[in-house]
Amino acid sequence: MNLDHPRIIDVQNHSIFVATWNVAGRSPTSNLSLEDWLHASPPADIYVLGFQEIVPLNAGNVLGAEDNGPAKKWLALIRKTLNNLPGGGYYTPSPIPEPIVEMDADFEGSSRQKNPSFYARRSFQTPSSWRMENDPSIPQPRLERRFSVCDRVIFGHRPSDYDQSSRWGSHRPSLGDSPSTVLYSPMSSSYAASSEDGHRRPGGHSRYCLVASKQMVGVFLTIWVRSELRDHVKNMKVSCVGRGLMGYLGNKGSISVSMSLHQTTFCFICSHLTSGQKEGDELRRNADVMEILKKTRFPRVNSECSDAKSPETILEHDRVIWLGDLNYRIALTYRSAKALVEMQNWRALLENDQLRIEQRRGRVFRGWREGKIYFPPTYKYSTNSDRYAGDDMHPKEKRRTPAWCDRILWHGEGLQQLSYVRGESRFSDHRPVYGIFWAEVESTHDRLKKSTSYSSSRIEVEELLPYSHGYTELNFF
């Protein structure tokens, strides 16, 4: 520590809205509304939105040119929705409140009566309980970019800023690709939001800025932050691991984004794991998780700041959140599982949930936590219906047992989950799952740092290293 510049550590609490949704290859329609999803909760500081199957997982999309049309539509729709959130203003850091759900509560259907306040928040349609003040928006720069050999990486781009790029889920030097440099530079400090959808806030500024967006075939991860936080988000890096065809194509796998908010490091992983409900398929999903943890690598940051942290692996980060269609099933027959669903006997269902079983046996996600589940299985539903798909099939036909395929887990201290619920959109055969977290964030400052200006940012990317799996680093200065 430099004694000439004593440092003060300030701990703030920031809210993070995390959602995962398998949209079954469907592109959003012009009349699709996300308001019940994103408007229903009090506005968060950070939105981490992960999708699976944003394009159909056919041979053309897996092996051919990437279809980025749906991603454009999702980004435009998200931007429009976030920047029209009600109850505007700024989150004021405050002590972490008590969680909405008591973590030792009963799983049984009777828990609905035990926790009425929780079920009242099922769709997040509650008045704002987090105080917001002021709204001095910070402009979002327009960025130019060049693309690397890995899949398209968009940081801080408008929804229209997409190009074609490589098809591999993870970079493999043996394929003949050579490392290249990706460069992003701010062009206009007055640029605030896409004018394409016409949804700017008064004064032309966006309340939320897109800081990272990444597609790998059907997996899509996008991260948005409040405008006033943008200049404190640094060291953006992305790593992709393909676990699909031939063991490395991107129809299955993960996108991981590493970033720092002040002096606290975050890693968000969006994944789509191996499907199937045959006995033993859960072991393939375990293998996917282990390979993702093993192969996800982020380059070290070359920083002049002596206190800068630069984690290389997922578990080296201070706060880690894993979301996605993990595809773990319920090890029961369709008839047995459906009967328990109708009884709302979540405890009995969870005792047969493959993810919980594998965790108890220490075979996957050791040390990871998941909130209590008080909602019905999220898969598989009939089209535009509240009926499980098996209800429409003959009993002698093979029916998919209802399952909690869509999950959110976290690792590390300083994270507290306030809610864990599902949505009721009939858009897909999956129901979306959401969670709200409070995260402790450390910031340090001294005389030297107080004199440092973040207003004019230079953003650059290190050259990809040979062992990369499609990662990219952005440094904000």
Automatic annotation (TrEMBL):
Protein name according to UniProt: Inositol polyphosphate-related phosphatase domain-containing protein
Keywords attached to this entry: Hydrolase
Origin species: Linum tenue
Lineage: superkingdom: Eukaryota
Family of this protein: Belongs to the inositol polyphosphate 5-phosphatase family.
A UniProt-annotated Pfam family: Exo_endo_phos2
One GO molecular-function entry: phosphatidylinositol-4,5-bisphosphate 5-phosphatase activity
InterPro entries: Endo/exonu/phosph_ase_sf (IPR036691), IP5P_plant (IPR045849), IPPc (IPR000300)
Protein's GO biological process: phosphatidylinositol dephosphorylation
The keyword DNA damage appears for this protein: no
Keyword Hydrolase applies: yes
